[in-house]
Amino acid sequence: MRYAHEKSIESEYSIKRDLAAAYRLLAHFKMDDLTYTHLSARAPGSNVFFIYPFGSLFEEVTASSLMKVDCNGNIVEGQEEQYNQTGYVIHSAIYKKRKDIHAIFHLHTTAGVAVSTMKCGLMPISQFSFHFYNRLSYHNYNSLALDHDQHGNNLQEDLGNHKAMILNNHGTLTCGASIQEAFFYAYYLEQACKVQCAALQSGQQLMMPSAPVCEQAASDMCDFEPNLGQRDWKALVRMLDKKDPSYKN
């Protein structure tokens, strides 16, 4: 019994360590937004998730500073400067519905917000964007997500079976079976949005591959790496460990 308990503690720590690393890496790539936006990861075998304390910068997050919150928005462990109502509505609604999802990233990057204002949505004009071809949801803006019944249910219904979504006039949301997968989608959705903004700004007529080619590219990319995001993640963590390993504390 003691061995199982120790394994559970070790498993929770590894998830918190990786989630703290994700916060630090997004700060490194300047994909954070002061003390807003949030990343979470499900605790092993539960509807409880880890999330940073509202009021912290991404670059400040450590494994030990992460809070544990249940899917009713109750803080189980930790404390924060201000109760993060929108964060808990967004994350808990998805975790309740999608048992296959173990990490959720919500961001407000300039490129992501810019594309979220475009009626065309994300266009299939770059290899980055093909990751999301016919695999991207959209959610209409309805002020701050403060209500579980209205905002939370609508959000998870709009996400459907996908792992990436554009929140219109707001930002982006990516999910994964692991923190590494959620990070992979967050990073490449950002690259796709950056390319689209730059291409549209050029004023040139844009080329789009045919629908069959786009679908083939999307399928090939999913099959190219069995554990999506793992290879890049290992390299990024090596970089982070050299730069500042304090996220593990």
TrEMBL record:
GO molecular function: actin filament binding
GO cellular component terms, A-Z: cytoskeleton
InterPro entries (UniProt xref): Aldolase-II_Adducin_sf (IPR051017), Aldolase_II/adducin_N (IPR001303), Aldolase_II/adducin_N_sf (IPR036409)
Pfam families (UniProt xref): Aldolase_II (PF00596)
Superkingdom of source: Bacteria
Domain Class II aldolase/adducin N-terminal, chain residue ranges per copy: 17-197
Family designation: Belongs to the aldolase class II family.
Name this protein carries in UniProt: Decarboxylase NovR
Organism lineage: Bacteria, Pseudomonadati, Pseudomonadota, Alphaproteobacteria, Holosporales
Gene that specifies this protein: novR
